[in-house]
Design a protein that fits this description.
This protein is mainly α. The protein has two domains: 1-178, MFS general substrate transporter like domains (Growth Hormone, Chain: A); 200-399, MFS general substrate transporter like domains (Growth Hormone, Chain: A, Up-down Bundle), CATH 1.20.1250.20. 81% of the residues lie in helices and 0% in strands. The chain has 18 helices and no strands. It has helices at residues 3-21, 27-34, 39-71, 73-93, 97-110, 113-124, 130-156, 162-181, 196-199, 201-207, 212-228, 230-243, 247-298, 302-307, 309-313, 318-327, 335-367, 375-394. The radius of gyration is 20 Å and the shape is globular. It starts with a helix and ends in a 5-residue tail after the last helix.
Length: 399
């Protein structure tokens, strides 16, 4: 990839994650303001926002993927950047809570460009280098995860609407920049005609059943994404309950998680995959992630919890390795559909996993106080272990 092209794709991923992270510290307060300071009502509305965002991702990702297979990657990536900019402006100017809700619906649809960016990487990267390239996307995801909440909190301290104005400016500027520097990666002779049977979520998921290894790896990715939801759903509640962490400590810890993720996917994926191959890197990443999750759930103090973070960060070996293996089973004209299907799989987990982990946490601290408050993390560890076993079995043919 040319440097300008690579930089633009990585910046696009960072901005997509900013769409998630920048609203974390400011959106609940903005909703609370619209609800007249009623925290309980604001919490209910915020839960609706999270669910609708996941639903829009579920439907939007396969549509974007199929459109990119038909029209090419460039127009879809640029349209997504422009759409995100408009979405941020809608939220910044929202006069009521329902305008905010409209903004989140738009964000769920337009932020689905992560799948198109991954398809672009698959188009322009040789097969033997795809794991490292997907690792750089994962590192960009980590950058957005670190910068989003920090930027939102800093800018929102004086005005909760200011982060949305800044994000709108960045997204629109990136769309303009991409107009001049981003070439098309999918030649016309390799494109696939658009059809709704491929673009709807169920139709796109059928692609995953076209090869046993592809379907098995999609199942492994499903388990990985289920386990990953324990962090945004239970991290703050658990560390506050068990270790007495305040907001500042939680923020620093989350930033450390993001930095560790950047190091893992940006610098370790390439040499590890080169040394042991995608299959072993995939399974080792899940096993180390399971050990890290279990350690977090069983640690009696905050120091022990923090020491598990390097293990948890090495879980980042899974994503790029799995992506690389799956792209080998799909022709060029279906890479967008593949990435859209994988995004839909991830979105499905967002519909139930956060609720599952929070309810497990609530049940243990209410019914069995002091026995296993870290139960959500132990459950996530078991889920990752199951994913490691499944991943090892379904990639036997590749081995």
């Amino acid at each position: 990839m040319r440097r300008a092209t690579a930089a633009f794709i990585l910046i696009t991923v960072v901005l997509d994650v900013l769409a998630l992270g920048i609203v974390i510290p400011v959106l609940p307060k903005l909703i609370e303001g619209f609800m007249g300071g009623d925290t309980a009502a604001a919490a209910s509305i915020y839960g609706l926002f999270i669910t609708l965002w996941a639903v829009m991702q579920f439907f939007g990702s396969p549509i974007q993927g199929a459109l990119s297979d038909h029209f090419g990657r460039r127009p879809i990536v640029l349209a997504s950047n422009f759409g995100l900019g408009i979405d941020y402006l809608v939220m910044a100017l929202a006069p009521t809570v329902w305008w905010l809700l409209l903004g989140r619906v738009m964000s769920g649809l337009t932020a689905a460009s992560f799948s198109t960016a991954a398809a672009y990487i698959a188009d322009v990267t040789p097969k033997e280098k795809r794991a490292a390239a997907f690792g750089m996307i994962g590192a960009a995801f980590g950058v957005g995860f670190v910068l989003g909440p920090a930027l939102g909190g800093l800018l929102g301290h004086s005005d909760p609407r200011l982060p949305f104005y800044v994000a709108a400016g960045l997204s629109l500027a990136n769309a303009c920049y991409g107009w001049f520097v981003l070439p098309e990666s999918l030649s016309p002779d390799k494109r696939e005609r658009f059809a709704w049977k491929r673009a709807n979520p169920l139709g796109s998921l059928r692609l995953l059943r076209s090869h046993p290894e592809l379907f098995g790896l999609a199942g492994t990715a499903f388990l990985f994404n289920v386990a990953h939801w324990v962090l945004p759903s239970s991290f703050v509640l658990y560390t506050g309950y068990r270790y007495g962490w305040d907001a500042r400590t939680v923020g620093l810890c989350l930033a450390a998680v993001g930095v560790a993720n950047i190091i893992s996917q940006g610098f370790l994926v390439k040499p590890v995959v080169a040394a042991i191959g995608e299959r072993r890197a995939l399974v080792i990443g899940l096993i180390l992630g399971a050990l890290g999750m279990a350690g977090m759930g069983l640690s009696p103090n905050g120091t022990g919890f923090m020491l598990m973070m390097p293990l948890l960060a090495l879980m980042g070996l899974f994503g790029p390795s799995a992506q690389s293996l799956m792209t080998l089973r799909v022709p060029v004209n279906e890479q967008g559909q593949l990435q859209g299907a994988l995004s839909s799989v991830q979105s499905v987990t967002g519909l139930f996993a956060p609720f599952m982990f929070t309810q497990v946490f609530a049940w243990f601290i209410a019914s069995h106080p002091g026995t296993l408050p870290g139960a959500p993390f132990v459950l996530a560890a078991l889920t990752l272990a199951a994913g490691a076993l499944l991943g090892w079995v379904v990639t036997r043919e590749h081995a």
